[in-house]
Amino acid sequence: MRQPHTRTARRTVVGALAAGLLCTAGLAVPAVAAPAAAAPTRDSVTRADGLALTPPMGFNNWNSTHCRAEFDESMVKGIADLFVAKGLKDAGYQYVNLDDCWALPARDANGKLVPDPTRFPNGIKAVADYVHSKGLKLGIYTSAGTKTCSSAGFPGALGHEYSDAQQFADWGVDYLKYDNCNNQGVDARLRYTTMRDALKATGRPIVYSLCEWGQNKPWEWASDVGHLWRTTGDISDSWGSMLSILKQNLPLAPYAGPGHWNDPDMLEVGNGGMTDTEYRTHFSMWSVMAAPLLIGSDLRKASEATFDILGNKEVIAVDQDPLGKQGSVVTSEGGRWVVAKEMQDGSRAVALFNETGSPQRIATTARAVGLPDAAAYTLRDLWRHRSYNTAGTISATVPAHGTVLVRVFADHHWDANPPAVELGLDGAPLLEAGKPATLSTTLTDLGRTPATQVSVSLTGPEGWTVRPESAAHAESVPTGQTLRTRWTVTAPAGTPTGSYDLTLRASYRSPAGARADSTLALAAGVVVQPPAGTSYLSDLPWLSATNGYGPVERDTSNGESAAGDGHPITLGKAVYAKGLGVHAESALEFYTGRACRTVTADVGVDDEKNGRGTVAFEIWADGRKVAATGVLTNAMGAQPLSADVTGAQVVRLVVTDGGDGIDYDHADWGDARLTC
């Protein structure tokens, strides 16, 4: 958990290692409160206890409520009710978890924790009893420090491990999230192992979640301590935050397995900061990574689209596969990711994930993801809930920030399904208002059998003209062959610059006569030619923009929240009147129309971060990296960056997190200019 608007406050800890006793506010607190006991062998407290043999699924209130008054007994009971009513319990969700702020700031005279009587007037046990009556389980929160992470100063468990663990057990708690704030510099292994032993001493089975933020690489030592461990800092409800955490968690696949899971933090699905496409990516990638699935939105206010994402049983089955393998990266070139997960039945779950801001063709093969050679394969689309046959190619044109998630089987029943087809578009769909533009679409048969009676159509917004200029029908498209159709597309004169939806649809039949269809959503950009001469990029329209926190700012730094909340761009004490203020992970695309020559800027981490932050800047031209800085720190001030973009139709400005997460990463493109 974290404090609102202070996403990194909890990272401040006392660096000195305490020995024997901790002295805090004049109180001597034992660093270890454990009775003498033999050290457990590896996995004796995880897999051998039968807990969390698949990644835990449930709910945690923090992402949606923080410490606000709406977090109370009524909310917790309401979530439990919705788990049952909306089918989430049947889909596998079972833990209803309380985060910080459930207790009073002071212990009682006997050193016991006291539930807040305003939030929980009937106590925690009554809440646990209610949750248990629904066939669900209750989770609770504390910190491996003298206080929790809240600025209100709720009591932590350091020095009280055995007493607090017994209270939790007596209340009927089934899950403990153990945070890392106010830890007084005590060794992480010591703190987390002490609570492990305290939980074990209660005799109650309690899933143990280490929320250590990955600071001490718990994946290397915690498999015999807890059932799951956080691998990163806190997530927030933004594309950049989710993407940064995803990239940090993906390389840790070898450390995950039944009873010991990498935890990239809770789900943000439904909280409103991302699109439904991005939320489906979030849910898909957490599932293919065998991550805990802890809902972070207030389900009492959730849309049906949110419930559809969270309740997708075919995607959940990927996450919950009993083999317990975390998906591994097959390829990731140019932001086009292929991640494959081995399943217990021998199939592979394959995520085709598009990190970029425009549609991308992403492809792999059955052999590349680890399947044996076969005449053909069954390919199941887990979001469309349809099955096809493929000769071995696994590919799709994936929308910006989208993920196609499939499950591929080497079975003998592939011919019961129609062939898979891939819809695509040649080039970027960019056009000027009032001027006809030619686009070419493709339909390619990936199956072992031909697609017959094929028909394609392309539609645009109301008022647009879309007309085929070549064949949009074919009696048959054989395996590996393509139906290519040219279209003339015209946006009405006066159409504002921006992104508009085009939809490519196809219908066809299998050789046995079964009808199939496919749809591809495309984004067409209405653009204007950049002016001749040198212009500030902050004065030009962009095609697309993504940002770690808040919007991209013109001529100010990034303020992380609402538009216009930044400050003057300042790098190495130099103030820039013009420029772009972003927050990693960030990407900005500009239309250059093959008429421009150079991009220049002074780049760096804004001075407002007071020595913190690490980023890297990149300039791309039509999908090719043409300039990069390497990792920059706040102390390095402004660094000049220039790139030759001659002949490029689209220029993309990228800021990555420097490989250590996006905290503090306020990045500036000072005096960013385009010369045409």
* Helicity range: 10-25%
Proportion of residues in β-strands: 25-35%
Largest sheet: 8 strands, parallel
Report strand order across the widest sheet.
Answer: 9-8-7-6-5-4-3-10
Oligomeric form: single chain
Determine the mean pLDDT.
Answer: 92
The secondary structure category is alpha+beta
Any idea what the radius of gyration is?
Answer: 27 Å
Shape: globular
Number of strands: 40
Low-confidence stretches: 1-46
CA(first)-CA(last) distance: 48 Å
Total helices: the number is 10
Could you explain how this protein is built, in words?
The structure is a single chain. The chain has 676 residues and is an alpha+beta fold. The strands form 9 sheets. An 8-stranded parallel sheet has the order 9-8-7-6-5-4-3-10. Strands 11-12-13-18-15-16 form a 6-stranded antiparallel sheet, with helices on one face. Strands 28, 30, 33, 35, 38 and 40 form a 6-stranded antiparallel sheet that branches. A hairpin with a 4-residue loop joins strand 11 and strand 12. Helix 5 (161-171) crosses helix 6.
Question: Topology of this protein?
Answer:
Blueprint: E1 21-24, E2 27-30, E3 57-60, H1 62-65, H2 73-85, H3 88-91, E4 95-97, H4 123-133, E5 137-143, H5 161-171, E6 175-179, H6 188-202, E7 207-210, E8 228-230, H7 239-249, E9 261-263, H8 276-288, E10 293-295, H9 304-310, H10 313-319, E11 328-331, E12 336-342, E13 348-354, E14 360-365, E15 377-381, E16 386-390, E17 393-398, E18 403-409, E19 421-426, E20 430-432, E21 437-445, E22 451-459, E23 465-468, E24 473-477, E25 482-490, E26 498-509, E27 515-527, E28 534-536, E29 544-546, E30 553-554, E31 569-571, E32 574-576, E33 579-583, E34 586-591, E35 598-605, E36 614-621, E37 624-633, E38 639-644, E39 650-656, E40 666-675
Parallel strand pairs: 3-4, 3-10, 4-5, 5-6, 6-7, 7-8, 8-9, 20-27
Antiparallel strand pairs: 1-2, 11-12, 12-13, 13-18, 14-17, 15-16, 15-18, 19-21, 21-25, 22-24, 22-26, 23-25, 26-27, 28-40, 29-34, 30-33, 31-32, 33-40, 34-39, 35-38, 35-40, 36-37, 36-39
Helix pairs in contact: 5-6, 8-9, 8-10
